[in-house]
Amino acid sequence: MTGNWQPLPGSQPYNGEVGVVQHGEECRIESVCDVEQARAVQQAVRDVHPYEEAVIHFLPLYEP
After folding, report:
1. pLDDT value at position 2?
2. Most Cβ neighbours (<10 Å): which of 5, 26, 31, 37?
3. Strand, helix or coil at 36?
4. Which residues of 18-50 are buried (b: 16+ CB within 10 A; e: fewer)?
């Protein structure tokens, strides 16, 4: 997957230059965890993610 981003003034980009639109490969990781583990999973991703703000979504799964 290819992504686009533009580091804004005041940022310290891991990749690219402030004010310049960048293009690069991105990856998407999906996983399943119990609600009790969600906070720890979120922190683990933030600890290893190179960007200033990682995009993390938690979606509840329906189990009939």
Report:
1. 87
2. 5
3. helix
4. eeeeeeeeeeeeeeeeeeeeeeeeeeeeeeeee
Please tell me whether the overall predicted TM-score, pTM, comes out greater than 0.85 for this model. Answer: no
pLDDT per position as a tens digit, 9-48: 998 887 889 999 999 888 888 889 999 999 999 999 889 8
The CB density around residue 17, as the number of other CB atoms within 10 Å, is: 10
Structure tokens at 49: 């993610």
Place of tokens 């009939």: 64
Phi and psi (nearest 5°) for 43? Answer: -65, -40
| Residue 42 near residue 57 (C-beta atoms within 8 A) | no
**Cβ contact 7:31 at 8 Å:** no
